[in-house]
Design goal:
4 helices, five-stranded antiparallel β-sheet, alpha+beta, 109 residues
Length: 109
């Protein structure tokens, strides 16, 4: 009996993990993988601004690469409005539109 109580002996043979605990451990590991958004220099910001303005003026389609903490995502469409006060652009896609924050834009192609 004394052996069971030494060095966590009582619980060594009864290890079990609830599904909720396993899910929380996976979620915590995903949080640790999150990336930090890199700072863009003035030249990159100028290129982004120029490409957005060109798409707005010419109604040409562009691809915007957006920062995400897990993985960058791409949006394709035409810039239909530039809101300088709220620092966002409205991107018209094939069948809907979306507001995109300028701070989330990594590059424009």
């Amino acid at each position: 009996m004394g052996k069971k109580l030494e060095e966590n002996g009582l619980f060594e043979s009864s290890r079990m993990m609830l599904p909720e605990h396993a899910a929380e451990i996976r979620r915590h590991r995903d949080v640790l993988k999150h990336r930090v958004k890199p700072e863009l220099d003035e030249q990159q910001l100028e290129i982004i601004s120029r490409e957005l303005t060109e798409s707005y003026m010419n109604q040409s389609e562009i691809m915007i690469v957006l920062f995400d903490r897990i993985e960058d995502r791409e949006e394709v469409g035409v810039v239909t409005k530039i809101d300088q006060q709220l620092k966002r652009v409205r991107l018209q896609k094939v069948d809907d539109w979306d507001w995109i924050n300028l701070a989330d834009i990594m590059r424009v192609e």
